[in-house]
């Protein structure tokens, strides 16, 4: 079975952007190729072309063709006090950056996670709480910035998700509305404003995604 997706993004102060992805299963593996508008706008080229091989739940290998850059991601799950601990190791060759991520699932409503960039002071702690299966609260603490971030989201009517975020370090407030539909694709509308700026002009962005099964 082959799957394809098309994604478009529009921002008032920027040129519209588009990307498409094709993936198909090969035994236990999933092969994926993606392109952006840079691949075709000025004639066929390798710009924006990326290839990936994935074994779900185990590893992902991404290769950026024009940059000749690759990224490894390994996943594993162990049990701590009978609770699943999801571990992820990510290494990007281009910027020589390695990320370690761990998420402990306490129960269906509570999860704690830690994200650390090796060789730096960038460490983030996050707590995820789901109330009633519909509302999610996510406070997080950035050790490097010594700052808190907050997020709250609410699912409405099954297909709609409303989300609000606030970053205390930058004083950036964000609002997001996402609608997902198997029949009509999905779209996302985002608005953000920096409360620290004298002229609090909101930035707007719209995204739409269409998925196809062939």
Q: What features would you describe in this structure?
A:
With 214 residues, this protein is mostly beta strands. The chain has no helices and 16 strands. It has a 16-stranded antiparallel barrel with strand order 1-2-3-4-5-6-7-8-9-10-11-12-13-14-15-16.
Descriptive keywords:
16-stranded antiparallel beta barrel; 214 residues; single chain; mainly beta
Taking Cα atoms only, what radius of gyration do you get, to the nearest Å?
A: 19 Å
Query: Kindly state the mean pLDDT as a whole number?
Result: 93
* Beta-strand residue fraction: over 45%
- In what order do the strands lie side by side in the largest sheet? 1-2-3-4-5-6-7-8-9-10-11-12-13-14-15-16
> Main β-sheet: number of strands, strand sense, barrel status?
16 strands, antiparallel, barrel
Oligomerization: single chain
Considering DSSP H and I runs of 4 or more, what fraction of the residues is helical?
Answer: under 10%
Question: Which sequence of SSEs, written as H and E, runs from N to C?
Answer: EEEEEEEEEEEEEEEE
Fold blueprint:
Layout: E1 2-10, E2 17-26, E3 29-36, E4 50-55, E5 59-64, E6 69-80, E7 83-92, E8 97-105, E9 110-117, E10 123-131, E11 135-142, E12 147-156, E13 160-167, E14 172-181, E15 185-194, E16 203-213
Question: Briefly, what is this?
Answer:
The chain is an all-beta fold and 214 residues long.
């Amino acid at each position: 079975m082959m799957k394809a997706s098309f994604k478009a993004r529009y921002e008032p102060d920027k040129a519209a952007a588009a990307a498409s992805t094709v993936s198909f299963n090969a035994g236990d593996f999933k092969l994926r190729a993606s392109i952006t508008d840079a691949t075709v706008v000025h004639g066929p080229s390798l710009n924006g072309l990326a290839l990936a091989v994935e074994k779900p739940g185990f590893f992902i290998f991404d290769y950026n063709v024009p940059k000749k850059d690759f990224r490894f991601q390994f996943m594993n799950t162990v049990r701590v006090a009978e609770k699943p601990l999801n571990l992820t190791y990510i290494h990007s060759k281009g910027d020589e950056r390695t990320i370690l991520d761990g998420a402990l699932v306490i129960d269906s409503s509570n999860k704690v996670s830690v994200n650390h960039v090796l060789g730096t002071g960038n460490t983030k702690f996050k707590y995820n709480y789901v109330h009633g299966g519909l509302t999610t609260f996510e406070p997080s603490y950035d050790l490097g910035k010594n700052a808190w971030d907050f997020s709250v989201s609410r699912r409405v009517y099954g297909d709609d998700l409303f989300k609000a975020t606030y970053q205390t370090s930058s004083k950036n407030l964000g609002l997001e509305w996402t609608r997902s539909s198997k029949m009509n694709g999905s779209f996302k509308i985002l608005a953000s404003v920096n409360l620290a700026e004298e002229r609090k002009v909101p930035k707007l962005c719209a995204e739409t995604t269409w998925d196809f099964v062939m």
